[in-house]
């Protein structure tokens, strides 16, 4: 290979990494993990059809993929058809569509894929009329305590300690969030929050906490 060939290849790999990092950051901000996005992309974009075998997913994703992995990861999307030779239904297919939990600002436009919408702020969001907000329920008890909320003040420097304290509160009061898990086992669930900071807020912690609980019983 010539020097020009190496330069072209290096530039291509650099631009590819920039694109991959950008797409992962965007999906995380929407409450979707990189694996969820990758699996959805490979199924929806499979040549000539909208289903894929677990083996085909493993090949196209270049990583080890199992049926249980798909069940946990294909969560925030509509049911995707994945052919699994080890677990065929009568028509030769198995539907994998275990729904996990995502987050969204309460001011964002509602979407069909939101599923059951749950407000998880301690206070009602400013500027939002109760009658105009599509909402399944408001679980203020699942939000951080007033004491913790006032201490945090959405200060990124306090984020690690806030997460630790909030998880302790959640573990101590499972009745405050148990209904969300029940809903997530039936369909999509979206946690709504009003904070401007999309990376450092209580909904991020609650989503990760609850998704971990779902994985424990899957």
Please explain how this structure is put together.
With about 220 residues, this protein is α/β, with parallel strands linked by helices. It folds into two domains: about 5-95; about 100-215. The chain has eight helices and seven strands; from the N terminus they run ααβααβββββαααβα. It has helices at about 5-30, 35-45, 55-60, 65-75, 145-150, 160-170, 180-185, 200-215, and strands at about 50-55, 80-85, 95, 100-105, 115-120, 135-140, 190-195. The protein has a four-stranded parallel beta sheet. α6 (about 160-170) crosses α8 (about 200-215). The radius of gyration is 20 Å and the shape is globular. The model is unreliable at about 70-100 (pLDDT under 50).
